[in-house]
Amino acid sequence: MDLRRILLVKTAIAIGAFILLVLTLLLTSCSSLEGNLAGKNNIKAVINDTIVTEKATKGDLSVSLQGAGYLVPARAVNLYYNDLSGPLKKVHAMLGDEVKLGQAIFEIDVKEVLEEIKRKELEIKLLELKIQQLDQSIAINKAAVGQAERDLELSKKSHSVEPTLISQNALDKVRTQLERARCELKNSFTNKEMGIIQLELSKSELDKLQEKLKQGTLVSPIDGKIVYLERVYESERINSGRVLARIAEKSDIVFQMVTAEARNIQGNIEAVINLGGEKHPVMLYTPRPGDQLELVEKDQKIKNRVYFSFKNSMPNIDINVPVQVNVEVNKKGVLLLPKSAVRMEGGRSVTDIVKNGTAETVEIITGLADDSRVEVLGGINEETEILIK
């Protein structure tokens, strides 16, 4: 009996040890599985009844931005004297003035041109006189050629009748006289042709000088605003090709604003610039090929810029003079998330989304934000289910 009990007890202990070993292995396996799940990137939790989710939605966003900015020309027309130089006589406009097509901007003294015109007119008169003299020379040389031809014919007849009357030497002299007369006549025609060419050239140069005389007053080629004016002084010599002013059409003048939110202001937006109590409706302006702003955009030292073009009125401020402004930006139909659903991790904006029953952390690109919502530019779409808590 004692032996049987001892065997039963040992059997029970062995069975208990086996069961304990199996349970230990099961627990170890579960712990390993849980560790593997926890180690996967972006996996946060298993969704259960206590989790609240909602889908990302589109809506309108209105944001007020503060910053500094100034008017700049996107493109402008350079104003300079093309081929006329001279001392400055008068400046008819100032920086920031609105000017009309054909309005006088600069005027230089044209005394030098007038003197050139007088010299050229005298040169033309002398050439005309020279041509008249050549006409007379041509008439004389024609007569000389005619006389020499008659003398040669007479000499030939005399020599053929009586060689002793006209020697061969005398006959050769008559021939030489005829050749000389013909050469002088030819030279007279050549000189006249050259004189006519020189006369036409001088007349053409006179026409150019007279055109120069008309260009003494430099006028605006367009209706616009003076966005640059060279600092020049009375009697200062103005050389041709020197840019004296730049004039931009109103539609080509934009407002450049410096703000930390510049990269977020993109797409189809409506905005209003508030300056000194005046509101000016604007729209986003993207620099075009050929714009002067292209050169500015290539300068990496200047960042956080955004450009606005004016829909209607333009503020009455000077070009390139910094001012503080408030810009009300309205964006319609943009993807929005609650601010509580967005956080920063490692310098990146992230949010938690629901995917296949689990919560994943994904990186998103954020835009503008108001007090409660954040614009999302990329990383999720409208159908993405967002983990709220």
What does this protein structure show overall?
With 389 residues, the chain is an alpha+beta fold. Among the domains are: 77-108 and 216-247, OB fold (Dihydrolipoamide Acetyltransferase, E2P); 111-214. It has four helices and 22 strands. The strands form five sheets. A six-stranded antiparallel barrel has the order 3-12-15-14-13-16. A four-stranded antiparallel β-sheet has the order 1-19-18-17. The protein has a four-stranded antiparallel β-sheet with strand order 4-11-9-6, with no helix packed on it. It is elongated, with a radius of gyration of 49 Å.
Computed CA radius of gyration, to the nearest angstrom? 49 Å
Number of strands: 22
Order of helices and strands: HEEEEEEEHHEEEEEEEHEEEEEEEE
Q: What's the helical proportion of residues?
A: 25-40%
> Which runs of at least 5 residues are low in confidence (pLDDT < 50)?
29-48, 295-300
Average pLDDT for all residues? 83
Molecular shape: elongated
Short description:
37% of the residues lie in helices and 33% in strands. It is α+β, with helices and mostly antiparallel strands and 389 residues long. Among the domains are: 77-108 and 216-247, OB fold (Dihydrolipoamide Acetyltransferase, E2P) (Beta Barrel); 111-214.
